[in-house]
Amino acid sequence: MANRMITLMATPLRHRMLRTASGTIFFEAPVLTTREFPPDADTTSTAYLSFPVRYLSMFPDVHLVLEKMTMNLDLDGIMQTYFDPTRPRTTPEVCCNILRVFHKFGFGSDPRIKKTEDYIVDCLYNNACLNGNRHYSTPESFLYFVARLYAETRCESLRKRLNAVKAQLQERLNVPINPLALALRLFACQSVDIDSQLYRKDLETFMSLQDEDGGWPAGHYCRVGRTGARIGNRGLTTALAVRILQGEKRNA
Predict the structure, then answer these.
(1) C-beta separation of 163 from 153 below 8 A
(2) Cα–Cα distance between 181 and 59 in angstroms, integer?
(3) Cβ distance 171 to 188 under 8 Å?
(4) Chain segment 59-93, per-residue pLDDT in tens
(5) For the CA atoms of 63, 68, 74, 80, what is the dihedral angle to 10 degrees?
């Protein structure tokens, strides 16, 4: 059953990516934005990060995708969000996901990604995402993606440069925030091995938010650039809750 569900999920994205070597956030007609919405590096990266290895043969070769990303640079040499010259955007969270793909597939030493890595490190040290940004509504969004990159890369020099994420997360502990952002904070803390006693109060707060049906409220972590409308999903918050509880069980 699980394999069938993954195949059903992959099929629409596969059809789009076979044509363009990239995916878009919308499976159907775009909403709250322009009628035509371009493929983006975030959805594309998430596909290659999320689907099990045995399903990746359904998609274009990852080398083609990475090459496309390295050619989609802004004037500062940073990899951009949209594969569309009419939408020049660089987004720190998206850059983290792009870098995760490079490092996952063994291309973390590609010199063409160096300026994007520098951009992430600069955003981390200068608190550029302290109030969110155009596309992401909370600082937890950025810290979560940095924590994932920190935990997944095998490049020790990059891990050292990203080590400041631990202090940034600790500064956010016990700060009131919406349920999804709180889940991102907790998962990020686990990812970078922050002492569980430090985030115990946040964990207790998060557990108290569980609804009667067993799920968690939607909250939000990103937003529509044009309108600022915030986006969340109960399924995402609940899925993170499961991962957080699994992490606590392993560390008990």
Answers:
(1) no
(2) 31
(3) no
(4) 888 999 999 999 999 999 999 999 888 889 899 99
(5) -80
Give first-to-last CA distance, the chain, whole Å: 31
Instruction: Tell me the per-residue pLDDT of 183-210, one tens digit each, with 9 for 90 and over.
Output: 999 999 999 999 999 999 999 999 999 9
Spell 210-247 as b/e; 16+ CB within 10 A means b: eeeeeebebbbbbbebeeeebbbebebbbebbeebeeb
